[in-house]
Prior knowledge:
Oligomer: single chain
Distance between the termini: 33 Å
Amino acid sequence: xxxxxxxxxxxxxxxxxxxxxxxxxxxxxxAGLARLLGDRRPEFDGRLSANPFVxxxxxxxxxxxxxxxxxxxxxxxxxxxxxxxxxxxxxxVLGGLALTALLVPAADLLRPLAxxxxxxxxxxxxxxxxxxxxxxxxxxLLNLLPVPGLTAGGIWQAxxxxxxxxxxRYQALGLAAVTAAVVAxxxxxxxxxxxxxxxxxxxx
Length: 204
């Protein structure tokens, strides 16, 4: 395995920051959408927080650093306590992924501002922005898979709400399978595939 040898120390550090930023923004967006639609379970679980580490999945961080795509810690929903019933979970999942995807072109707006900084600072900011865009683009595509533990896997909480007690087990198995598939190369480099379509810079 040459993954770590292929990554420089600056790659690893910036990738860690990018994954933490992605997990935080994605988790807050999901929790905020759920709250907007009347589901307060994520809020009560502390997911509407300025603390990025409550959104962080250790395995999602590790996979994100090595493969530039990962996931946030799974959210729990209460499908029966919102305005749309079970359809709320679907709306939150799709809306959260769509808004997270929009963060990729939005991050391009930071590039001109970074150039106002001293040269060394501008380089750091531009590098982290690029890593965030790569991680976010790949992670959005990865989390479209309806696997328990990933974002789209949250729909199973609406389909089978009676399986709530077994949910952590299903999520652990699902994320283990995703991790194995990514490490085995069965999942391509999604960030590199999606970034040219999401980033204005990537289209040039």
